[in-house]
Design brief:
Elements: E1 2-4, H1 16-19, H2 27-39, H3 43-60, H4 62-74, E2 86-90, E3 94-99, H5 116-123, E4 147-153, H6 156-167, E5 172-180, E6 187-191, E7 194-197, E8 206-208, E9 214-218, E10 221-233, E11 241-251, H7 258-265, E12 289-297, E13 302-306, E14 320-325, H8 331-339, E15 344-347
Parallel strand pairs: 1-15, 4-12, 6-15
Antiparallel strand pairs: 2-3, 3-4, 5-11, 5-12, 6-10, 7-8, 7-9, 10-11, 10-14, 12-13
Helix pairs in contact: 2-3
Protein name: RNA pseudouridylate synthase domain-containing protein 1
Organism: Armadillidium nasatum
Biased composition (Basic and acidic residues): 1-20
């Protein structure tokens, strides 16, 4: 096992000027053909060539790209509605739902008309518990911008057992994300504590241990497995892309904003993460973080719930193109992120 402090290469998104090809259009394909012949035994060079060829084709066929982009905008979804919640599993002990992105779990603000709480009140009114402050047993949380699996116990006993499973770290959680830059190592473990940001205007912000503004720091560990490397293109589909990586994440602890912060400090901020991109990443339609699988062992019921992958290439609105696949999103990948010794372990300096 190797230890280090820097993971992967974070490339800055190229400007429109940088991305223009000033060479003769015929030079680029011919040059790369020669490189392919001379360097075919070098996987990294070959991968780089394939990536550049795809970007070149985007430039070459920009009119087609703009057409696809316009179609994508026509299919953009409106703000979440009360009906925008999917039931994944419903038994006498548990209700599992697929929370949409940009939805609060609950709120005391009457202006917040659409929350998971109000959605469930409409969807399953028979489960409302008037003795609870927010009508349902929310034993864990997802950030406003994060989509994915949410567990709601339906009685006192199941609530007690699920809460105990979370507190004793017996729950297996898996997330999907698309991050900026290409992560060089396949499997990484980050062991860096996280604390509250004590600055008055940063109440929703977390910081890592050692930061001057950190308070009440607690240990935090995350595992990161690279699934695919590719391109995430920006506001215009034609040649404004940037390198991106699709990852499977397994938090070994459950700190607030843990996954977002650990990826950010590695130089690979989640695409669309407004908070940890210094409030700069505003182009994507959402933050690309999704709670993909949740395994909760209890005496009442062993639940293993999984959603579909929301970050697939076929959904044009994601603006994501995979170029290199390292791991399939299957049980083998889940086992690898749990059991295999990581290529590098990142610790606080």
């Amino acid at each position: 096992m190797k230890e280090g402090t820097i993971v992967g290469e974070q490339r800055k998104p190229k400007s429109e000027k940088d991305m223009n090809i000033d060479e003769d259009e015929n030079i680029l394909p011919r040059r790369y053909f020669l490189v392919l012949i001379s360097q075919v035994n070098n996987t990294n060079i070959l991968y780089s060539v394939v990536l550049d060829i795809i970007l070149y084709l985007y430039k070459r066929f920009s009119k087609i790209g703009l057409l696809i982009n316009s179609v994508g905008h026509l299919s953009q979804e409106n703000s979440p509605l009360l009906d925008d919640v999917e039931i994944l599993h419903h038994s006498k002990n548990f209700l599992f739902v697929n929370k949409q992105y940009d939805v609060l779990i609950n709120s005391n603000n009457p202006q917040d008309k659409v929350t998971v709480q109000t959605q469930l009140k409409k969807l399953v009114p028979e489960l409302i518990n008037p003795n609870l402050g927010h009508d349902f047993n929310f034993v864990h949380r997802l950030d406003y911008a994060t989509s994915g699996i949410l567990c709601i116990p339906t009685n006192k006993k199941s609530c007690r057992q699920a809460s105990c499973a979370f507190e004793k770290h017996r729950v297996d959680k898996y997330y999907l994300a698309i991050v900026r830059g290409h992560i060089s190592q396949e499997l990484i473990e980050v062991n860096i504590g996280i604390g509250n940001d004590i600055r008055p205007d940063h109440s929703y912000h977390m910081v890592i241990q050692g930061n001057l503004h950190a308070n009440k720091v607690r240990s935090a560990s995350t595992r990161i497995l690279v699934l695919e490397k590719g391109i995430s293109h920006g506001k215009k589909i034609s040649f404004q892309g940037f390198p991106a990586t699709k990852v499977l994440l397994k938090p070994l602890t459950g700190r607030r904003h843990q996954l977002r912060l650990h990826l950010s400090i590695l130089g690979h901020t989640i695409v669309g993460d407004y908070t940890y991109s210094n409030r700069n990443d505003i182009v994507p339609y959402r933050m690309f973080l999704h709670a993909f699988r949740l395994v909760i062992p209890t005496e009442l019921e062993h639940t293993d719930i999984q959603t579909r992958d929301p970050f697939c290439e076929t959904y044009l609105r994601n603006k994501w193109i995979s170029v290199q696949k390292l791991n399939k999103l299957d049980e083998e990948a889940m086992s690898k992120i749990r059991k295999v010794i990581p290529d590098v372990v990142i610790k606080a300096s």
